[in-house]
Every structure is written in structure tokens, then in C-alpha cells.
Design a protein that fits this description.
166 residues; 6-stranded mixed β-sheet; elongated
Amino acid sequence: MRKYLILLVLFISSCGYSFSSTNSVVKPQDKVWVAFLTNETTSTSAQTLLRRAVLDELHTMRGVTQASSKEDADIVITGAVRGYGSGISAFDKLDQVREYRLNVSAEFEAKRKNETKPIWRGVISSTQDYPISDNLALQRNSEDEALRIVSKKIAVRLVSALENNY
């Protein structure tokens, strides 16, 4: 019994998430500037939600602080929202639409201060299903929430790509 108790204590005390990659592009002491993203889509808020999600994720996962300006930054991340669209993802038994799927893609590039070669560049896409509604306000709220979730997913993937240097 004592052996199991010791194992349980060791297991619980070892739980915790931290980055351990030695190849990490982003260090906790770095100040990062995420430029305002260009938006090549019909969405009026995708670029704002995505930029905020990237800043939040960098701070939450890496402890990185936001630079006060591009000139003050150690790393500058630029990007563009390249794709935004919804399509049908689910029908009910009467062949009526029940859910839409939001698809968003964004291109990012990260550069160290005073360097021309990017330290990371790529396109990240994500999707999220959301329910339909006869009420236009509820429908819009569902799509907005799906966009918030997609933005978070893209931000997590971007920070992971920077962390793992791929």
C-alpha cells in the first residue's frame, strides 16, 4: 500500500506542462510583436481575433511579453488571414441542415530582429462545426464562437510550430 501511495505522490507531483525543447525559436525572455494581420477574406473580425489569440497563447504558454512596438521586439510575427468560409457539415434524418463547418486558414512568418531570413514560415488551417439556427442573431453568435475557437486552435499550432522549430 505504501508503495502505491509513493507512486501516486510522485505521479501527481510530476504532472505539469512545460516546454523543454532546446530548439525553441521563442524564449521566455523574448519580447514579441504580432503585427496586425491582413485580411483577404469577407470576415470583418477574423484578423483581430486571430492576432489576439496568438498574443494570448504566446503569453500563456511561453510567458513571452508583448513588445510595445515593432522596433522594441526581439521577434516579429506577421501574417494574413487567407481563407474564411462556412459549409454544410451535418444533416438531420429529414435531410435538413443541422450544422455548418467554419474553415479558416492563415499564413504566418516569424523573424528575429535585424534578420531577413524567417525563423519560421507557414500556413495553418483549422475548422470548427457550429449549429444552425432560425434566429439570425443566434446564428451569428454561433459563428462568432466558432471563429474564436478556430483562432485559438490556430494560435496553439503556431506556438507549437515555433516551439518545435518546424
